[in-house]
Amino acid sequence: MPGSRTGVTVRVPAKINLELSVGGPRPDGFHELATVFHAVSLFDEVTAFPSDQVGVSVAGPQADLVPDDASNLAVRAALLLARHTGVTDGVHLHIRKGIPVAGGMAGGSADAAGALLACDALWRTGLSRDDLRVLAADLGSDVPFGLLGGTAIGTGRGERLTPALARGSFHWVVALSAGGLATPAVYREIDRLRAGRVLPEPRVSDRLMQALRSGDARALGAALSNDLQPAALSLDPHLDRTLAVGLDSGALGGLVSGSGPTVVFLVEGQEQALDLSVALAATGVAADVRRAHGPVPGAKVVDGSPVTRL
Ligand code: C5P
Questions:
Q1: Which CATH architecture has domain 8-164?
Q2: Is the CB of 242 inside a 6 Å radius of any atom of ligand 1?
């Protein structure tokens, strides 16, 4: 990493899906979704340094699991932005991982969103947030939400967003798994499990939206749902026990996050979050446990302008 150079740092949150309603496979291979995204306080940091070439380095607990070549989604984001704006400068992206890798919390998508915003500031392209959102949707279904943050309804393949009315702040306990699950494999598994069934149009439930509007954590806990959960449990059966331990230890609700294998639990407050973390750690069902709150804002420049010396 070119540590002595100047750079722009962007902080991007993880997401969970409070509800994930999945339709059948589309002709393009994606699935039609209706989902409620919720950004929580686990963050990656992406720093864009001026460079002659385009490159990436990754630091953090699971850094070795993240590609450090052109297949990295953050690199693809930088190249897409350069191509779109005609910028010929290079960039070195340094990613500090705080979001679980391959965990169903959109860590790779967060890095792409962070790279878009950081390179945009570094190169002073003058694109609007809306322009960036269009590029984000090209990079992946969850990338636009990385830019937006908060709580939002996602439709299409997840890239079409409408901010949702939500009151207050919610407390989450996040149970990490030792391994990861590949998103395409989880979608293939849900197709296998539901083969031959007539599927209703994906939709977000009124119950969940009402719970968000009133800021009622208990009602929200009861309304959490994820159509991908049976597929994730089928591929990683031990997640069933993680869910059982959390729900038996006072969580208001719990579910597999996105395509998994991370499991998230909603709790009443910070004290209950601590108690549940201890219970999960004591039973050994989770490889690691984090506490988080949401909603939090989307990708944000945290370390000033290109003239900031890091
Ligand atoms: O859009 P993204 O690159 O994150 O999607 C990763 C994979 O997840 C897709 O290639 C597809 O297999 C699956 N997916 C899907 N339907 C969606 C979103 C993702 O089938 N709406």
A1: 2-Layer Sandwich (3.30)
A2: no
Any ligand 1 atom below 6 A from CB of 172: no
Question: 260 alpha carbon to ligand 1 midpoint, in Å?
Answer: 13
What order of strands is seen across the sheet that includes strand 263-267?
253-256, 263-267, 170-176, 288-294
User: Cis (ω within 30 of 0) for the bond into 261?
Assistant: yes
The minimum-distance atom of ligand 1 relative to the CA of 22 is: 21
CATH code for the domain defined by 170-294: 3.30.70.890
Taking alpha carbons only, the member of 130, 128, 168 closest to residue 151 is 168
pLDDT digits (tens, 9 = 90+) for 63-115: 999 999 999 999 999 999 999 999 999 999 999 999 999 899 999 999 999 99
Domain locations in the chain as residue ranges: 8-164, 170-294
Ligand 1 center–CA 156 separation, angstroms: 11
User: Do residues 151 and 37 lie in contact, with contact meaning Cβ atoms separated by under 8 Å?
Assistant: yes
CB contact set of 225 (below 8 Å; sequence gap of 6+): 19, 20, 21, 205, 208, 255
The tens digit of pLDDT for each residue in 207-240 reads: 999 999 999 999 999 999 999 999 999 999 999 9
